[in-house]
Amino acid sequence: MKSIIKFFESLFGNFNQNNVEGVKIAKGEKIELKIPEALLGNGIWRISEWYVQTGDIVNPGKVLCKIESENEMSNFESFMEGKINYRNTSKNRLDKDSIIAEIIGIN
Question: Residue 32 pairs with which residues in a beta bridge?
Protein backbone atom coordinates (compact mmCIF):
# COMPACT_ATOMS: atom_id res chain seq x y z
CA MET A 1 0.00 0.00 0.00
CA LYS A 2 1.43 3.38 -1.01
CA SER A 3 1.36 6.41 1.23
CA ILE A 4 0.32 9.92 0.17
CA ILE A 5 2.68 11.23 2.82
CA LYS A 6 5.61 10.21 0.60
CA PHE A 7 4.42 12.79 -1.93
CA PHE A 8 4.38 15.52 0.72
CA GLU A 9 7.77 14.45 2.07
CA SER A 10 9.19 15.21 -1.35
CA LEU A 11 7.80 18.75 -1.06
CA PHE A 12 8.20 19.57 2.64
CA GLY A 13 10.76 17.13 4.07
CA ASN A 14 10.53 14.25 6.54
CA PHE A 15 7.12 13.55 8.08
CA ASN A 16 7.71 10.15 9.68
CA GLN A 17 5.95 9.85 13.02
CA ASN A 18 9.21 9.61 14.95
CA ASN A 19 10.32 13.05 13.75
CA VAL A 20 7.19 14.98 12.80
CA GLU A 21 6.56 18.66 13.06
CA GLY A 22 4.43 18.87 9.94
CA VAL A 23 2.96 22.00 8.47
CA LYS A 24 1.89 24.56 11.09
CA ILE A 25 -1.45 26.26 10.62
CA ALA A 26 -2.75 29.13 12.71
CA LYS A 27 -5.65 28.71 15.09
CA GLY A 28 -8.88 29.03 13.10
CA GLU A 29 -7.15 28.79 9.71
CA LYS A 30 -8.76 26.26 7.38
CA ILE A 31 -6.77 24.10 4.97
CA GLU A 32 -8.44 22.04 2.25
CA LEU A 33 -6.77 18.71 1.51
CA LYS A 34 -7.04 17.54 -2.09
CA ILE A 35 -5.68 14.53 -3.93
CA PRO A 36 -2.18 15.23 -5.30
CA GLU A 37 -2.39 15.85 -9.04
CA ALA A 38 0.45 13.35 -9.52
CA LEU A 39 -1.99 10.55 -8.62
CA LEU A 40 -4.77 11.71 -10.93
CA GLY A 41 -3.00 10.32 -14.00
CA ASN A 42 -3.00 6.85 -12.43
CA GLY A 43 -6.70 6.06 -12.83
CA ILE A 44 -9.96 7.02 -11.23
CA TRP A 45 -9.63 7.51 -7.46
CA ARG A 46 -12.40 7.26 -4.88
CA ILE A 47 -12.54 7.41 -1.09
CA SER A 48 -13.28 3.89 0.08
CA GLU A 49 -13.02 4.13 3.87
CA TRP A 50 -12.73 6.82 6.55
CA TYR A 51 -10.70 6.41 9.76
CA VAL A 52 -11.63 9.79 11.31
CA GLN A 53 -14.85 11.65 12.02
CA THR A 54 -15.70 15.34 11.74
CA GLY A 55 -14.48 16.97 14.95
CA ASP A 56 -11.56 14.56 15.50
CA ILE A 57 -8.15 16.04 16.32
CA VAL A 58 -5.40 14.77 14.02
CA ASN A 59 -1.62 15.02 13.97
CA PRO A 60 0.87 14.73 11.11
CA GLY A 61 1.05 11.14 9.93
CA LYS A 62 -2.49 10.27 11.03
CA VAL A 63 -4.27 8.20 8.36
CA LEU A 64 -7.49 10.02 7.49
CA CYS A 65 -8.92 7.70 4.87
CA LYS A 66 -8.20 5.04 2.29
CA ILE A 67 -8.41 6.00 -1.37
CA GLU A 68 -8.54 3.47 -4.20
CA SER A 69 -8.29 3.36 -7.96
CA GLU A 70 -8.95 0.41 -10.22
CA ASN A 71 -5.39 -0.85 -9.68
CA GLU A 72 -4.05 0.82 -6.53
CA MET A 73 -4.92 1.52 -2.93
CA SER A 74 -3.38 4.21 -0.73
CA ASN A 75 -3.71 5.71 2.73
CA PHE A 76 -4.33 9.46 2.72
CA GLU A 77 -2.52 10.94 5.72
CA SER A 78 -2.63 14.33 7.38
CA PHE A 79 0.53 16.39 7.21
CA MET A 80 -0.61 18.90 9.82
CA GLU A 81 -2.16 19.15 13.26
CA GLY A 82 -5.73 20.31 13.58
CA LYS A 83 -9.38 19.37 13.82
CA ILE A 84 -11.31 17.70 11.00
CA ASN A 85 -13.80 20.37 9.98
CA TYR A 86 -15.14 18.57 6.89
CA ARG A 87 -14.72 15.18 5.24
CA ASN A 88 -15.91 14.16 1.80
CA THR A 89 -18.38 11.30 2.17
CA SER A 90 -19.17 11.03 -1.54
CA LYS A 91 -18.30 7.82 -3.34
CA ASN A 92 -17.87 9.81 -6.58
CA ARG A 93 -14.66 10.11 -8.55
CA LEU A 94 -12.02 12.44 -7.09
CA ASP A 95 -10.67 15.08 -9.43
CA LYS A 96 -8.17 17.91 -8.95
CA ASP A 97 -10.84 20.14 -7.40
CA SER A 98 -12.31 17.52 -5.05
CA ILE A 99 -11.80 18.34 -1.39
CA ILE A 100 -11.04 15.18 0.56
CA ALA A 101 -11.03 16.88 3.96
CA GLU A 102 -10.70 20.27 5.59
CA ILE A 103 -8.58 20.77 8.69
CA ILE A 104 -8.89 23.77 10.95
CA GLY A 105 -5.95 24.96 13.08
CA ILE A 106 -6.35 24.55 16.82
CA ASN A 107 -3.15 26.09 18.21
Answer: 102
CA dist 10 → 6, 26, 105 (Å):
6, 23, 23
CA angle, residues 28, 76, 29, in degrees to nearest 5: 10
Q: Mean pLDDT throughout 17-30?
A: 71
- Number of residues that make up the chain: 107
46 sits in which H/E element: strand 46-50
Give the count of alpha carbons within 13 A of 49, CB side only: 7
Whole-model pTM?
0.76
CA distance 98 to 62: 20
**pLDDT of 14:** 45
